[in-house]
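[job 4471] stage=fold_predict status=RUNNING
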Amino acid sequence: MAITRILIANRGEIALRIHRAAHEMGIETVAVHSTADADAMHVRLADHAICIGPPPAGESYLNHAAIISAAEISGADAIHPGYGFLSENAKFAEIVEAHDIAWIGPKPEHIRTMGDKVAAKQTAGELGLPLVPGSDGAVSDYDEAKRIAAEIGYPVIIKAASGGGGRGMKVCEAEDKLESLMKQAGSEAKAAFGDATVYIEKYLGNPRHIEFQVFGDGNGNAVHLGERDCSLQRRHQKVLEEAPSPVLTPEDRHRMGEICADAMREMGYRGAGTIEFLWEDGAFYFIEMNTRLQVEHPVTEAITGLDLVREQIRIADGKPLSVTQDEIAFKGHAIECRINAEDPWTFAPSPGEVTYYHAAGGMHVRVDSGLYASYRIPPYYDSMIAKLIVYGRTREGCIMRLRRALEEMVIEGVKTSIPLHQELLRQPDVLSGDYSIKWLEEWLKERER
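[job 4471] inference complete, writing structure tokens
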């Protein structure tokens, strides 16, 4: 079956991104939208548009029945979920396929497995992905805890098996403190969650967040498209991403990329996926797998020359991967800045009317955005309104081009995070690539003083 009409079950810049890829393949698009998004750019450009509900996402973009009905009414033979919303909802993927509509995403069973943190970690270990060293389960005996801690090396972190939020968690720097900290963690866990069970893991004090892009055809063939460094984060939200990582060698990239691709071959994985790791002192530790396209996929496109959305559509249409691993080459450097409609320093959302808009341009400058002058940014959804992606032959050249592009980009009428990005690109640690997942929050705290 050849895909001829795709329903885009999303909004904003990713909906526009999917529309563009589809049209370049000669495929029609169907935009679904809430009443708040009636004037959105992707709605204006799509071949067909259907309103599926009021502004709240639960009544529109997360409404299974409304989206399936829109697909049937419009004659769509495929659904692309983008990222967020229903992109990692295994039940919805099953419903789509049960209606004989192509699901442009991984197999539902893989979405379900990797969406469960415990099952994902177990599966990752079975597939040969490196895990954070630690106990296999609960630890109650001090002698056993002492043996495990000595084996994996200090510092270690003692964690409550139940709950979260930092309660029942203690970092232990040396053996002489282990027993007392185990008791403290257990007592806190008992008081907070009614369960004193704890376990032990290696403590990663200052890691980087590095992820590998993978693709599979569902029939045992898979490739990796290199890594992205997403360590500049605030409250676990990525702010700036780059590829390749400033800290990896070509040998690291090849070794870890092949481990990831081998895992996907063994799974029989289909479509796009991202395997995320913490990296510290040259070692990788699996965090999770995202069974969807990532916000930061354009930096991978920039250094490989591959259209990842086009590849997703081809695979969902039953076609093989368009490239072999040997044909994938990594050239140059790319950085993406997430431009949000929010105060650059307090991060308070700033919805409202865009009174003036001028996109940055020039050689190797890409802007993914649905903005236009007079567009009203709704207050109901994520605050990201644009992505600025810049490519250069070297990292230094890429940064210089990005500085220039940020100067050119003008969005008036609302506050944006552009000033934050401009300030980040003046910081020596960012310029040298010497930063971790803790760097941005620590820098922001220091700036407030």
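[job 4471] summary: The chain has a mean pLDDT of 95.
[job 4471] exit 0
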